[in-house]
Amino acid sequence: MSIIKNSATDPNKILPMRYLWARQHYKDGVANNWTPEEVSMQKDVEQWKHPTFLSDHEKRMILWNLGFFSTAESLTANNIVLAVYRHVTNPECRQYLLRQAFEEAIHTDTFIYCCDTLGLDPDEIYNMYNTIPSIKEKDDFVVELTKSIFDPTFELHTDEDIQRFVHDLIGYYIIMEGIYFYAGFAMMLALKRQNKMVGIGEQFEYIMRDESLHLAFGADLINTIKTEFPAIWTKAFQERIAGLIRKAVELEKRYAYDACPKGLLGINAEQFCDYVEHIADRRLERINLPAQYHKENPFPWMSQSTDLSKEKNFFETRVTEYQSGGNLDWD
User: Fold this and answer.
1) Catalytic pick from 26, 96, 113, 182?
2) Residue 288, Ramachandran bin (φ over 0: left; ψ between -120 and 50: alpha; else beta)
3) What is the mean pLDDT of the chain?
4) Three-state secondary-structure class, residue 94
């Protein structure tokens, strides 16, 4: 029995479970359930329309992050539904993938909600993956990384096929969700810490908590495949993956400088880049590869936003303890 390419698996028979970590990730996701409409955007609208409350470069940074995430979430959803789900045959993992697909739909709805509430031009926002070079570079890189599992003829027959599948999973979970989202998260949450666009900031916090679980599941999935098919984890393959992650970091750092060239109050673009390198090392270590950058975390407050034992109390407008979600430390 294996987690992938198991023709003997009955997809309708989830018990007994073999991979209890997949079940736990599913339960943690349920404990973190939220919808964008629960977050008030009234102050955001007032701040956005105020002629001087936000600087031009702050507004530009917000628009760029909305533009990147609005299409990136659709890309990740397509990966799950059209590619990953077909090859991961284990039932409890598939249950989690369905939960993740639901969460990606919530994230997509969040950006619709933000655009509608702020009265933004959807053509501008949803076309930034074509019009903003540093966003297009990131999207093109991930699409190229994950294109093989979208091939309808792609199957997991040989070790080379499985290696290619793991390569694409790393491109999707480790690079796209684990690295490419995090400079944007840091920018939006740094703005929230200044009491600017707090509604959008809170929604980014919830998205980041979801993404931390997606990343945890993806790393467990990758590591399980490596354990069950050890022949694929060659030295050459490990070096290739490390090289891809280094390339991804350079593209994300370029985006950080482009999206926030003047920084925010007390935070500069170099710190955003240090943060990207710091989290890249954590992603590498999570799949048992050596760290590359050895940077300290310049934003220790970011880890607070991945604490799944907290949910917003929308009547008191503060964060309170809730349910039994696990505590994640993904920085």
Assistant:
1) 113
2) left
3) 89
4) helix
What's the pLDDT tens digit per position in 224-256?
A: 999 999 999 999 999 999 999 999 999 999 999
Q: Quick one: how far is CA 59 from the chain centroid?
A: 23
Both structure tokens of 244: 């891809």
Has residue 4 been placed in a domain?
A: no
Q: Look at residues 194, 210, 165 and name the one whose alpha carbon lies nearest to residue 28.
A: 210
Euclidean distance between CA atoms 149 and 172, whole angstroms: 11
- Which residue segment(s) compose the domain that 53 sits in? 20-321
For residue 316, being part of any structural domain is answered with yes
Q: Are 177 and 215 in contact (CB under 8 A)?
A: yes
Tokens linked to 35:
């919808």
Q: Does 3 reside within a domain?
A: no
Contact 159, 232 (CB under 8 A): yes
- In the chain, the number of structural domains is 1
**Structure confidence by residue, pLDDT tens digits, 5-45:** 776 666 668 888 999 999 999 999 999 999 999 999 999 99
CATH code at position 302: 1.10.620.20
Q: Is 113 designated active site?
A: yes
User: Residue 294, SS3?
Assistant: coil
Burial of 86 (0-12, 13-18, 19+ CB in 10 A): middle
